[in-house]
Design brief:
Blueprint lengths: L2 H11 L6 H8 L3 H8 L7 H14 L14 E6 L5 H16 L3 E6 L8 H10 L3 E5 L5 H9 L4 E4 L11 E4 L1 H14 L5 E5 L5 H16 L9 E3 L4 H12 L7 E4 L2 H13 L9 E6 L12 E4 L2 H16 L8 E4 L2 E3 L11
Parallel strand pairs: 1-2, 1-3, 3-4, 4-5, 5-11, 6-7, 6-8, 8-9, 9-10
Antiparallel strand pairs: 10-12
Helix pairs in contact: 1-3, 2-3, 2-4, 5-12, 8-9, 10-11
């Protein structure tokens, strides 16, 4: 496509009376350069890109998207980390909605980061997906504005941090899940209960700890900061913190882990220290992954409806792509305690 043809095509995609030529004039660049910026091309200097983006934002441009029809397009699904059965549950939920709409799904991983780099955003602008779903990730204000000017809607799932009003998010009742897990252990008679949550900088991790603390306060028990640990949601974190908590003279009689994977790490730590579950130690997980029914002992856990969360986010982002405004931009789905074999009353001393 020639530069003139590209300019005419992009003019058609921009709402309002101002053309790419006028944007170029105001930014002091050529029309093909504006087209490159709009389409996420890499062969533009950072200074030039910033100048063009400033004009686009000042003018309040939004790329006009065609209706979802014969070309349903793509959904981008972005994880901070992808290597876990937890992520598979999210992928399955998104695929269920995408498949019904005959859409493809592009998977991306941010290498453990919670915010995408400019290179990833450039790739998204070139793909022009119908929408983006971020999992345990978030955008800074400039990134939100950039997707907005291209009319690429997005939804956050299990957001890493507190979001400004109007940012569409789907999560679960993490505080209630932490409360229910700890109440269950208290109801069995445990009084020295430890918690291994996820990363301290992730909102859902902190919410589960808050639920745990609320249950202790409700029972009139003092907080012991040494019994609260922040892990990584993976087996290794559960194992390391489990060893530390259980290899002490005043070890806890129960541990609430902020993920099923961390709970499995705790089970391994208990085994290596010669402790039996649930006779010597009760363990509660979080997520209710399918594997929890097949390990021994079968894991008591909090059911977090991951597939439903993902499907809800996919339906929401498609509604936004159609120009609809969801009735609720913040959805938290209910969690539920699932009691199995890894919890029991503490042994008499």
């Amino acid at each position: 496509m020639t530069a003139d043809a590209q300019e005419r095509a992009d003019d058609h995609l921009l709402d309002g009376p101002v053309t790419i030529a006028l944007i170029a004039e105001q930014a002091g660049v050529s029309a093909p350069t504006v087209s490159k910026v709009i389409n996420g091309r890499k062969d533009v200097s950072p200074a030039t890109r910033a100048r063009v983006e400033a004009v686009i934002e000042q003018r309040g441009y939004r790329r006009r998207r065609g209706p979802i029809g014969s070309d349903p397009g793509l959904l981008d699904l972005v994880f901070h980390e992808l290597d876990s059965p937890w992520a598979l549950q999210i992928i399955t939920g998104v695929e269920q909605v995408a498949g019904k709409n005959r859409m493809g799904v592009v998977l991306s991983e941010l290498g453990g980061a919670h915010r995408p780099k400019q290179e990833w955003l450039d790739d998204v602008l070139r793909r022009r997906p119908r929408g983006v779903i971020f999992v345990l990730s978030e955008l800074d204000p400039a990134q939100r504005r950039l997707l907005g000017t291209r009319s690429i809607p997005y939804v956050l799932v299990d957001t890493a941090g507190e979001q400004p009003p109007g940012v569409p998010t789907v999560g679960s009742a993490n505080w209630a899940g932490g409360l229910a897990a700890t109440r269950h252990l208290l109801g069995l008679g445990h009084r020295r209960i430890a918690m291994i949550s996820g990363p301290a900088d992730v909102l859902c991790s902190r919410a589960r700890v808050d639920g745990y603390r609320s249950a202790l306060e409700e029972a009139g028990l003092p907080r012991d900061p040494s019994l609260v640990r922040y892990g990584d949601f993976f087996v290794g974190g559960g194992y390391t913190h489990g060893l530390s908590l259980l290899d002490r003279p005043d070890r806890p009689t129960a541990i609430f882990a902020g993920s099923d994977f961390q709970a499995m790490g705790v089970l391994r730590a208990a085994h290596d220290l010669g402790l039996r579950v649930p006779e010597d130690l009760s363990v509660v997980g979080y997520d209710n992954l399918p594997v929890t029914e097949w390990i021994s002992p079968r894991l008591t856990t909090i059911n977090q409806p991951l597939q439903e969360m993902a499907a809800t986010a996919a339906r929401m982002v498609l509604a936004l792509a159609r120009g609809e405004t969801p009735a609720n931009m913040r959805i938290d789905l209910a969690t539920e305690l699932v009691v199995r074999d890894s919890t029991a009353p503490p042994r008499e001393p």
